[in-house]
Design a protein that fits this description.
The chain has about 130 residues and is mainly α. It contains five helices and no strands.
Length: about 130
């Protein structure tokens, strides 16, 4: 059985690797050796991972952390599987050297757009349901 310190150490190591891999797929998405479909998915996952705004806000009970605990790690894992191993090794090293992860303004804009469109759509449905006879 793992002690509490060992468990937290493993979780911290996993989180650091996840951050490094998010940065690495961001860098790899520009490499010509990466297939186009992997680039497209890498850009989407990296933009979301590096965005300062979450699709599902953390203050929403239970599902607020759903994207950080399940969706994002699965997306990163899937993109890493699509990128050739030698390319990932190279960009993992670059991401480790860089240390600090970048932020994605395009990812932030995409999340804000999704929330705005969703809010307007919900408002339109509520208006149509309550106001119209």
């Amino acid at each position: 059985m793992l002690s509490r310190n060992q468990m937290f150490s493993r979780i911290k190591t996993w989180a650091r690797r996840l951050k490094r891999d998010a940065h690495a797929i961001y860098l790899a998405s520009r490499d010509p050796r990466v297939p186009w479909y992997a680039k497209a998915l890498a850009i989407a996952v990296a933009a979301y991972a590096l965005s300062p705004i979450d699709l599902i806000p953390d203050f929403i009970p239970v599902i607020g952390y759903f994207d950080e605990l399940l969706i994002l790690p699965l997306g990163i894992w899937f993109v890493v599987r699509l990128i050739p191993d030698e390319v990932m090794v190279e960009y993992r090293a670059r991401a480790t050297e860089a240390g600090q992860r970048p932020t994605s303004r395009a990812g932030m804009a995409a999340i804000l757009l999704v929330w705005t469109v969703g809010g307007l759509t919900l408002g339109w449905f509520l208006y149509a349901w309550w106001i119209r006879p």
